[in-house]
Amino acid sequence: MTRDRALAMKRLLDVTLAGIAMVPCLPLMAAIALAIKLESRGPVLFRQERAGLRGAPFVISKFRTLRTGADGDGPIYSMDDPRVTRVGRFLRRTSLDELPQLFNVVRGEMSLVGPRPQLIGTTRPHEMRRLEMPPGMTGLVEVSRPERMSWDERMATDVAYVDHWSLWLDVSIILRTVPVMFVRKNALDPPRAAGDARP
Fold this sequence. Notes:
Elements: H1 3-39, E1 45-51, E2 57-63, H2 86-94, H3 101-106, E3 111-113, E4 136-138, H4 151-163, H5 167-181
Parallel strand pairs: 3-4
Antiparallel strand pairs: 1-2
């Protein structure tokens, strides 16, 4: 199978699986939205511009896990940070805050599997190859103990994913993601800041 045909199959897999997942996930997302509104004032969703395929900007959506306005007060590295809401802690630990990205997948802005989308302008020149695949809801980094990786190691793992990509690799990552979602996570994973992108 040629790479172009395999990439077309990847897109078909994305649309099919995301569409199937939305059936049980829509009532769950409605319940999460209600829980967020009942606990704290502010929008249900957090939206932010990220770098997509070939660096093209798109707006990523997540369920809001912080108190309104807290994201402007610096990075958050611990679940114990008071800016993280109680509902937010649960969503972060189970990765359920990422569910709205299913709509990004259906729209073609993201894939189910790929390098996690970073802030625009934060990818170093030697890491640009990671932008040659659509960003993903999960990826090789996410199933490889990311809490033990430096940023350089994460970016190198993303490049390795692109270099060795196959449909079977995507299927393997999807299957490995399911148990990872339910592992207790005590650390947050903010995107790389612009100041960290210097060589």
